[in-house]
Amino acid sequence: MSRVSFLLWLAVMVSALYLVRTQYESRALTTEIDRATQEARRLEIENDRLDVDRRAQATPLRVEKLAREQLHMHTITPAITQYAKIGGAAASASDAVEVHP
After folding, report:
1. Residue 74 contacts by C-beta under 8 Å, 6 or more apart in sequence?
2. What distance in Å separates the CA atoms of residue 58 and residue 50, rounded to the nearest whole number?
3. 3-state secondary structure of 83
4. Using CB atoms within 10 A as the burial measure, which of 44, 54, 64, 78 is most buried?
5. CA 60 to chain centre
6. What percentage of the chain carries pLDDT values higher than 90?
7. Of residues 32 and 63, more confidently modeled
8. What's the rounded Cα separation, in Å, for the pair 14 and 8?
9. What does the mean pLDDT of the chain come to?
10. Strands of 1-101, DSSP E
11. Bridge-partner residues for 98, per DSSP?
């Protein structure tokens, strides 16, 4: 009977150790899932913020302001129209090309 008791005791101890190991792994995986979920939320919030910043950077008024200040561009007016004539004998006044700077 002592041999059977020893085998049962050994089986209980192995089961208990396996149970402890499984619970530890379960807790570690749950913690990892929580961290990944928090990281996903953080990245989603950052993506939303960057999307709002991108929309703010691309407003027509801001683009026009940058074009005027940094590229020294200005809006087209009829007073700025320039005409270029095509050179050569076949060119006539009707061949004039309208150019807008």
Report:
1. 68
2. 12
3. strand
4. 64
5. 22
6. 53
7. 32
8. 10
9. 86
10. 82-84, 97-99
11. 83
